[in-house]
Amino acid sequence: MAPSGPVRRNGHITSKSTAQGTSSMTTTDYxxxxxxxxxxxxxxxxxxxxxxxxxxxxxxxxxxxxxxxRNAPYNPVSQSHPPAQAPSYFALKRNFLNAYFVKxxxxxxxxxxxxxxxxxxxxxxxGLVLTPRRLRGLVRYGIATAWWTGLTxxxxxxxxIDRGFKITGGACELASHFEGTGGKREYVTGxxxxxxxxxxxxxxxxSGHVFILVLGSAFLAMEILPxxxxxxxxxDERVLRRRDGGVDRVASDLGADGEDIGESDGxxxxxxxxxxxxVIGLSWWMLLMTAAYFHTWFEKVSxxxxxxxxxxxxxxxxxTGFLVAFSALFTIFFLPRAIPEMRDIVGMPGI
Length: 351
Hints:
Elements (H helix, E strand, L loop, with lengths): L5 E4 L2 E6 L4 E5 L16 H7 L1 H15 L1 H5 L24 H7 L2 H15 L12 H22 L6 H8 L3 E2 L2 H4 L11 H6 L4 E2 L6 H24 L5 E5 L5 E5 L15 H27 L7 E4 L2 E4 L6 H22 L1 H7 L5
Antiparallel strand pairs: 1-2, 1-7, 2-3, 4-5, 6-7, 8-9
Helix pairs in contact: 1-10, 2-11, 5-6, 5-10, 5-11, 6-10, 6-12, 10-11, 10-12, 12-13
């Protein structure tokens, strides 16, 4: 399936019409993509994705520089502060957004994406109309959901986060209650361990909060980015590899330049875009709170005798969750640009 939007070859734009089987050459002032590799992000995508390491860095610096956050007692096993000594409301695990937003984050991500997919006119007529663009969007959503499920919920048994924790030496402190008989080890989940009153410790713990907050919000952001660029009167060009090995530069084909978000759809179109924007904003805020108050990167100042032993514990829980989430984003949004057969199935936002 060839892209239906404007395609740049040799510095010009070729407007393709797959339905008519015709093409016409027109010159335009669309900005040239900053790279000739289909696997690298555009300038707008680079700016968007750089928000995530910036948030993690900002939160980690806050946890070091703020006296209340730095001096507050922290239990690395339960990954929480004692409620009576928490440095902030958002340092409590029971805070409202953690309990009703982060803990069921994929529900909110799914709701926001369905709203965008079926209410905004860039994907087709508002309503439950299955257009090709919507079908490919559902495929991308299915891949993201499979990553979320496999990492956090189920992967032919426990999720990969729990499996990785066990493989790296982690175990439940109530081992006799979980590990089976005859010396045979059985995989269990951290949630099951905690419900039974045990402690899930000893292995490398990927930050599930960071993973889901990055994956969900970045997935939504990448999907609506072409719409937001259109609102600003901007165009982005993504590099696609053709079946013959050459490359095309393809711009989004969403309609009128500078059109307001959802303007053509009224309240339905606005809801289709502002719902994911709200979920993205809340996710960024909770990602900052997670970086500031949980899974701290630098911790543990301990005293031995009369000397102070300062141990810099570079816990990589946050960075691992971040990298795993970005691996999913690479698979969904960048790999199809280099593999035409995959692109035919999953498509690209705005194309």
